[in-house]
Write a structure and sequence with these properties.
Layout (H helix, E strand, L loop, with lengths): L3 H16 L9 E7 L6 E8 L4 E9 L6 E10 L5 E5 L6 E7 L2 E4 L14 E4 L9 E11 L2 E6 L5 E3 L6 H11 L7 E13 L6 E14 L16 E8 L2 E2 L10 E4 L4 E5 L4 E9 L2 E4 L3 E2 L8 H13 L2 E5 L2 E5 L5 E9 L5
Antiparallel strand pairs: 1-2, 1-8, 2-3, 3-4, 4-5, 5-6, 6-7, 7-8, 9-10, 9-12, 10-11, 12-13, 14-15, 14-16, 14-23, 16-17, 17-18, 18-19, 18-20, 21-22, 22-23
Helix pairs in contact: 1-3
Length: 347
């Protein structure tokens, strides 16, 4: 057994060194392309992927006039093997795309299968694409206080100030008529447009909702699956890939985890022992200080435990991709990939 563990350890880090390249999807990014259409000349897609895990998608039906446009918003995710990107919106089933490379997404069918056709199915990364201002129907929690409205959209979890234009007065009146207490949020359905507007305080812009048409208030209801963008410090991160290899814990074991605390401390579990120490985060630069660990022995998990420790020691950067966190070495190669479990989620 003494010879087996070093051999496994070496094999694992060979995979980590040679197959753990940079992730194909680096957000923010915009992809465009004309995909097939059954009853039009084509469907021009503009897909924006944002670093917080949200997306904006515009589909223009060519040959049917400038008004033949459909916008949608939602959340995107990448599979653990980094091969499939999936778009999820509130009103539709998932839309999968194969990640061909850093610049190309290829449309799959709704079941995730390849589509047999000679027609173009590719969206290409487009640095010159104009930013989208999607116009779509949405549902979210609305509240009004301090002379301003706030809307939290249910599917994306986006929290946005509400512009004082369009149907804003009607929205305010509906809120006043249906709220159960001062400042209590009410579920609202409306058609709106998402735009960048100057911040009320400070420089720069922020995403703002223009309520173009109020539809109805739904007092007593809430977002069915409230979502919010994950952050480094509000999440338990569960290891799913180490280098290029998937992590499958043995029976009666959990996968390694990390939790970053706001005070610069980090706590975790390497699959066998508890970890504790400190980290330093500066933008996307991440390093770990010395980590203390308990001293249990857990064969045959030892090689993964050691490989995980070496990955943490080699970490020089990090990248948030929707519901995933990647640890990177000094050359930008992926050392480890984690899935998010937000506070309060079942374990």
């Amino acid at each position: 057994m003494g010879r087996i563990l070093p051999l496994l350890f070496g094999a694992l880090f060979t995979a980590m060194s040679h197959s753990g390249g940079a992730a194909a999807i680096v957000a923010p990014a915009t992809y465009t392309g004309d995909l097939p259409c059954a009853d039009c000349e084509g469907i021009r897609h503009t897909l924006e992927l944002h670093a917080d895990g949200t997306f904006f998608l515009r589909q223009q039906y060519l040959g049917k006039g400038n008004a033949a446009v459909r916008d949608s918003i939602g959340r995107w995710d990448v599979s653990a093997d980094e091969r499939i990107l999936t778009l999820r919106s509130g009103r539709e089933t998932a839309e999968p795309y194969a990640i061909q490379d850093a610049d190309t997404l290829r449309k799959r069918d709704r079941q995730g299968n390849e589509i047999a056709t000679s027609l173009n199915l590719d969206l290409k990364r487009d640095e010159a694409a104009d930013p989208l201002e999607p116009r779509t129907s949405m549902v979210g929690m609305y509240s009004y206080m301090a002379d301003s409205g706030v809307f939290i959209e249910c599917v994306t979890g986006l929290r946005m100030p509400v512009a004082t234009e369009g149907d804003n007065v009607v929205l305010q009146r509906a809120y006043a008529d249906t709220r159960t207490a001062a400042n209590a949020p009410v579920l609202m359905q409306l058609e709106g447009r998402l735009v960048q507007r100057p911040r009320m305080e400070g420089a720069g812009t922020m995403l703002t909702l223009v309520p173009e048409r109020f539809i109805k208030a739904r007092p007593g209801y809430r977002c069915s699956t409230p979502a919010k963008p994950v952050t480094m410090t509000d999440t338990e991160w569960t290891l799913v890939r180490l280098g290029g290899e998937p992590i499958v814990p043995p029976e009666n074991r959990r996968a390694p985890t990390l939790r970053f605390l706001a005070d610069g401390k980090v706590a975790g579990y390497d699959g066998c022992n508890r970890l504790a120490g400190k980290y330093t985060l500066d933008d996307d630069k991440l390093t770990f200080g010395p980590l203390a660990a308990t001293r249990m022995a857990c064969p045959p998990w030892g090689e993964v435990e050691q490989a995980f420790a070496q990955a943490l020691g080699a970490t020089a950067g990090s990248r948030l991709l929707g519901q995933h966190l990647e640890l990177l070495d000094a050359d930008g190669k992926v050392l480890a990939r984690f899935d998010a479990r937000t506070k309060g989620a079942p374990k």
